[in-house]
Each structure stands twice: as structure tokens, then as C-alpha cells.
């Protein structure tokens, strides 16, 4: 039996245990309440980070060898965007926004102190100096894989020939009332296929058409390497196929014939993706446009080295040119020429109605936005942009099919009514209110990364030709681009044609383009208009 004095001791022990249990319970409740309060006070930037996961650093492209990754207007120093594996074609439409078409699910990021809502093209993508990081490897140089050779010919095939009279007739229909010159040479047209690097940094084959002046004695001609404007991103919209498909996307055959007939070996390559059955064209991706133009140039020299029969020979003089999107590609090639193809003798770069800023294109030509959103989502990854957050609900059920199949002669009529009829109000407010960097940071980064003013080659002169009545790339956008590249040391000659539309710029600038190239070839200094736009 227990003694009487043991009973109070047991009671004291039981009371102590009960007290410990009660204190533990209270502490657990306090901890739970504290966690709830902390969750309610999570900074908005943490919420944004959950909604839009941070990317792992990726290898820089050739466009990142001189400048640091863009600092987004949000203040985030985001790693450079690079291509992702090709996404499968969606089998279903993007999910429509529930209820009201205006999205309230916006990634909120604390405002940056340096935000300028009136930022011009210079502020949209202002690079900063950044030395290339040294790469260390355990492999010896001898063990490293050999560099991939690009610009090599895959095959060639004659297409047809044109005499001077035929070229003059075609030119009359194309140039109409614009000043032009009669053909000096007949022209042979040849299909060539060459190799360049794709998004995986492996070789892919590009189709191009080569236009060669016909002469009876050995004659050297400068090269004119040209990039086409927007035709669509689907396989059925390839610029070189406009005649066989009975379409008119830019009359590129006649345009190239007219330059070859004046004494230039001209080449028009397709952009990447058009001849890939499982892919679409990566629209306005500078790191693919530049290599296509440079490897097309290499392919021309390889063609004549392997085919000594033609009397025409390529001179050591290359001009890059392009129309609208093609101008963007021409400046991309010019920017990386010294690093990617230092052997090429680049004499100048020419932009006919150049579209230098993809962000400005979204503002000024909303009908082209489906191409841009589809292409950037497909190239950089689905976390960069979601069409549900960009386009009104009416466009979503067939968005992927429409964007990937409708060519440029259909897109303007289909996506009509301007930004009020195309964009979500939340996206429109961000785009036109200078808030893309806050609400769509990765999309803003992709746009900045492909700004033609981002990387500038100060060693070659440029010629910009634009129409004052251009509604697709406004005069303001073009002159902001000119101001940006002038600030970085590029010499720019500028022609503005009164009451000329975007679609007429190539025609009205034909003579001025030829005279500018001829002056450079003759060693005559060309006019620089940088002092005018810089207010000097």
C-alpha cells in the first residue's frame, strides 16, 4: 500500500504534467497564428515569383558576348532568354478567361524607382558593358569538338532566266510611278540550299534564291543580301513561294531582279522554320535572323567557288538589306558579323521601312501580335507569354491555328479593329502605359532582347529609308531607332518620303538605295544625318 504522504506528491506531478501540456498547446496556437499573419504579409514580389518561376541561367547567345543581360524595367536582373525545345502544336485552344474578359490575375512586382513611362526605344533596351566570363574546362583544345561549319552549300538548281525587256516590264508593274532605272543586265535565277545554325545550335538547311547578272566577260559584282518582310509564320507562307501559291506578299522576285539587273549579285534566303514541317518560323528572333543572313552570304561565295563557269564573279563587297522584318534581320546580321563571320567584307546595311522594335510593333500594328506571341511562346517557352492574357476571348478558341496558318495577306483583315478589338484591356493598358515590365516581365525581356538597337556595329554605315505615311512602323519609331544607333557611333543616312506608305517604301527608295551603295563602292563619303536627330 502507498503511504499517505505519497498522494500529494502524485497530485503535484500530475499538475505539473498538465501545466506543461497547456503551455505547449498555447505555444502551438501562437506559432500557428504567427504563420498565418506572416503569410498575409508576404511581399507582392514573392507572390510574383511563385506565379512566374525564375529561370535557371542559360548559355549566352552571340548577342550577349558584349553586353550584359537586359535589366528589366521591374528592376529584376533576369538571365538572358534562350530557345527551348520545340513545343508540340497545341491540340486544344487556350483556356478562356472566366467571366469578364479583363484579367485581374496580374503578376504584381514592386515599382522600380527608375521607371520612365515615356521611355523611347533607347530606354527600352539599354545595354551595359559586361566582359565575357572566362570558361574553364578539363578538356584540352585537342579534345574539343571541331567548330561547326556554316554557310556550306547543300545543293543548287537553276530556276529560270530573264532578259532586260522582261525585267523592265516586271519593274514597271512593281515601281509604277516611283523613280527607277532600266535594266542593265539580264539575270539568271538559281535556287540554292545552305546550312546555318538552328535553335539547338545544330545545322539546319535554308532555301534561298540567287539572282546573278548575266555577262559575256568575267565581271565582278558586289553582293546584296536581302531579308524579306513579314509574310506569316506557317509553312505555307514562305516568301519564296508567293508566285507558286498565287499570292502577293511583297513581289520579292521582281524586287530582287531589279537589283541584280543593276549589277548586284543578290540573294533572298528564307528565314528559319518555313521548310521545317514540324516547326513554324521564329518571327523576330534576332539570334536566328543574323546567322541566316551571314551564312547566305557565305553560301554565295561557296557557290561561285564551286561553279567557275558563270562570267559573273562576287566582289569583296557585301551589303545587307531588308524590308520591315527583313530590316530587323539585316541589322541583326550587321551587329554580329565581326564575331560570327569576320571574313566577310561588309560595306553597309540598309533598312527599307525597318521594324526595329518588336514592342513598338505590338503598339502600332496589333494585327501582327498573334505572330509575335505565338513565335515567342514557342521559342522561349510557355512561361514567357500566355495568349489568354493578351487576346480577347473571341480570338482564343482558334488562336493557335489562326496564328500559324494565316499569311500576311489575310492577317490584317482577320485581326481587324485595332488594339481595342484585339487585346485584353489589362494587356493593352500595360503595353500602351509603359507597364509591360511590371505585369509581363519575361515577355518584356524577350522584346528588349530582340530590339535592333540593343547591339550596334559602329564600323559600318547604315541607310534608313522610310515613308511618312507608314502606319505599321511609324516615323517616330524609326527615328528613335536612328537616334539610338547614332548615339552608339553608327553613321546613318536617312531618307523620309512624304506620303509614302509602308508597302511603297522599297519602290520610292530604289534609286536612293542604289546611289548610296554606289557611292560607298566608289570610296565617296556618304552623308551622315546623325547630327540632325541628335540635335547637334
Report the CATH C-level class of the domain at 153-359 and 457-533.
Alpha Beta
What is the multimeric organization of the chains shown? single chain
Catalogue the unreliable spans.
1-12, 39-62, 64-75, 86-142
Portion in beta strands: 5-15%
Taking the alpha carbons of the first and last residues, their distance comes to 110 Å
Order of helices and strands: HHHEHEEEHEHEHEHHHHHHHHHEHEHHH
Q: Treating each run of at least 4 consecutive H or I residues as one helix, how many helices? A: 20
Evaluate the radius of gyration.
Answer: 29 Å
Which class of secondary structure composition applies to the elements? Answer: alpha/beta
Task: Write the CATH architecture name of the domain at 153-359 and 457-533.
Answer: 3-Layer(aba) Sandwich
Give a count of the beta strands, DSSP E runs of length 2 or more: 9
| Large-scale geometry | globular
Largest sheet: 9 strands, mixed
Could you tell me the CATH topology label of the domain at 153-359 and 457-533: Rossmann fold
| Approximate helicity band | 25-40%
Report the average pLDDT across residues. 82
With strands numbered from the N-terminus, the spatial order across the biggest sheet is: 1-2-3-5-4-6-7-8-9
Amino acid at each position: 500500500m502507498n503511504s499517505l504522504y505519497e498522494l500529494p506528491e502524485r497530485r503535484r506531478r500530475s499538475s505539473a504534467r498538465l501545466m506543461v501540456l497547456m503551455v505547449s498547446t498555447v505555444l502551438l496556437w501562437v506559432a500557428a497564428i504567427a504563420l498565418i499573419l506572416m503569410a498575409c504579409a508576404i511581399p507582392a514580389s514573392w507572390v510574383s515569383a511563385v506565379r512566374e518561376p525564375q529561370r535557371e541561367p542559360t548559355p549566352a547567345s552571340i548577342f550577349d558576348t558584349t553586353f550584359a543581360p537586359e535589366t528589366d524595367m521591374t528592376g529584376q536582373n533576369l538571365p538572358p532568354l534562350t530557345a527551348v525545345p520545340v513545343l508540340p502544336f497545341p491540340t486544344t485552344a487556350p483556356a478562356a478567361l472566366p467571366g469578364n474578359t479583363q484579367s485581374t490575375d496580374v503578376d504584381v512586382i514592386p515599382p522600380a524607382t527608375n521607371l520612365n513611362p515615356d521611355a523611347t526605344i533607347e530606354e527600352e533596351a539599354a545595354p551595359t558593358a559586361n566582359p565575357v566570363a572566362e570558361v574553364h574546362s578539363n578538356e584540352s583544345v585537342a579534345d574539343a569538338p571541331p567548330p561547326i561549319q556554316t554557310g556550306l552549300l547543300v545543293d543548287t538548281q537553276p530556276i529560270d532566266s530573264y532578259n532586260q525587256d522582261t525585267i523592265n516590264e516586271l519593274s514597271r508593274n512593281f515601281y509604277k510611278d516611283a523613280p527607277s532605272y532600266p535594266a542593265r543586265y539580264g539575270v539568271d535565277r538559281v535556287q540554292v540550299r545552305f546550312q546555318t545554325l538552328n535553335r539547338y545550335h545544330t545545322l539546319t538547311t535554308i532555301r534561298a534564291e540567287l539572282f546573278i547578272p548575266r555577262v559575256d566577260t568575267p565581271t565582278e559584282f558586289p553582293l546584296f543580301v536581302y531579308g524579306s518582310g513579314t509574310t506569316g509564320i506557317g509553312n505555307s507562307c514562305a516568301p519564296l513561294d508567293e508566285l507558286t501559291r498565287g499570292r502577293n506578299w511583297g513581289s520579292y522576285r521582281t524586287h530582287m531582279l531589279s537589283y541584280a539587273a543593276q549589277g548586284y549579285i543578290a540573294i533572298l534566303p528564307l528565314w528559319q522554320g518555313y521548310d521545317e514541317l514540324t516547326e513554324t518560323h521564329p518571327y523576330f528572333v534576332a539570334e536566328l535572323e543574323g546567322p541566316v543572313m551571314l551564312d547566305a552570304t557565305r553560301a554565295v561565295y561557296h557557290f561561285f567557288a564551286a561553279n567557275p563557269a558563270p562570267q559573273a564573279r562576287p566582289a569583296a563587297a557585301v551589303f545587307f538589306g531588308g524590308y520591315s522584318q527583313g530590316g530587323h534581320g539585316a541589322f541583326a546580321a550587321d551587329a554580329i558579323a565581326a564575331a560570327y563571320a569576320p571574313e566577310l567584307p561588309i560595306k553597309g546595311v540598309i533598312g527599307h521601312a525597318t521594324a526595329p522594335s518588336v514592342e513598338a510593333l505590338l503598339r502600332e500594328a496589333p494585327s501582327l501580335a498573334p505572330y509575335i506571341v505565338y513565335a515567342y511562346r514557342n521559342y522561349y517557352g510557355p512561361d514567357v507569354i500566355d495568349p489568354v492574357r493578351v487576346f480577347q476571348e473571341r480570338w482564343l478558341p482558334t488562336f493557335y491555328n489562326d496564328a500559324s496558318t494565316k499569311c500576311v495577306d489575310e492577317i490584317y483583315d482577320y485581326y481587324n479593329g485595332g488594339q481595342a478589338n484585339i487585346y485584353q484591356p489589362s494587356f493593352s493598358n500595360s503595353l500602351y502605359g509603359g507597364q509591360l515590365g511590371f505585369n509581363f516581365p519575361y515577355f518584356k525581356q524577350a522584346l528588349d532582347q530582340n530590339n535592333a538597337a540593343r547591339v550596334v556595329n559602329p564600323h559600318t554605315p547604315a541607310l534608313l529609308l522610310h515613308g511618312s505615311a507608314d502606319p505599321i512602323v511609324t516615323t517616330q519609331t524609326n527615328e528613335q531607332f536612328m537616334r539610338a544607333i547614332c548615339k552608339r557611333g553608327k553613321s546613318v543616312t536617312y531618307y523620309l518620303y512624304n506620303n509614302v506608305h509602308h508597302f511603297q517604301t522599297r519602290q520610292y527608295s530604289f534609286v536612293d538605295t542604289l546611289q548610296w551603295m554606289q557611292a560607298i563602292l566608289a570610296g565617296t563619303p556618304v552623308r551622315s544625318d546623325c547630327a540632325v536627330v541628335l540635335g547637334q
